[in-house]
Design a protein that fits this description.
Number of domains: 2
Largest sheet: 3 strands, antiparallel
Number of helices: 7
CATH class of the largest domain: Mainly Alpha
CATH topology of the largest domain: Arc Repressor Mutant, subunit A
Order of helices and strands: HHEHHEEHHH
Helix content: 55-70%
Radius of gyration: 19 Å
Shape: globular
Strand content: 5-15%
Structural class: mainly alpha
Number of strands: 3
Length: 153
């Protein structure tokens, strides 16, 4: 029996190895997001908001935050930057003037249509390379991880 050489750059233990992959994924998302900011003028999170508004015009901030699974105050900065870039506009709700709804501008529609170099395109390619059952189980695992991380200790 031969002794296995340990890679000094690879953590030992299932949990640490999994976390290392999560950090790698997080880093890759940040790198792609910054590249999108340079090439498309929006970051990954901004593009996601544009895509959601493009799919469902007239979303409220509460609807957007709920869809993203974040607190509305977390969304404020993203929405403010998209408004400043003239990608989205805020309009008063016709039924309740206290509420506002968002829609895309022409620039926002251009970003919504773009596919090249986006996080979404990379994710779509990756999803197409694995068995659909793996995707279902991965989504379940990601949901469970998020719930555990959000849980108060």
């Amino acid at each position: 029996m031969t002794a296995r050489k340990l890679d000094p750059h690879r953590p030992t233990g299932e949990t640490l190895q999994f976390m290392q992959r999560l950090w790698r994924l997080t880093h890759a998302l940040e790198v792609r997001s910054k590249r999108m900011a340079r090439t498309l003028g929006v970051t990954g999170p901004q593009r996601l908001v544009v895509r959601l508004i493009g799919q469902t015009p007239n979303l409220s901030a509460r609807d957007l935050a709920s869809t993203l699974g974040i607190h509305p105050s977390t969304l404020t900065g993203i929405v403010a930057r998209l408004e400043a870039q003239r990608m989205i506009v805020r309009e008063a709700d016709a039924k309740d003037r206290r509420k506002t709804r968002f829609r895309l501008t022409a620039d926002g529609e251009r970003v919504d249509r773009e596919r090249k170099g986006t996080v979404e395109t990379a994710v779509r390619r990756a999803l197409g390379k694995v068995d659909p059952d793996v995707v279902v189980h991965t989504v379940m695992l990601l949901d469970q991880l998020a719930a555990e991380l959000e849980r108060a200790e």
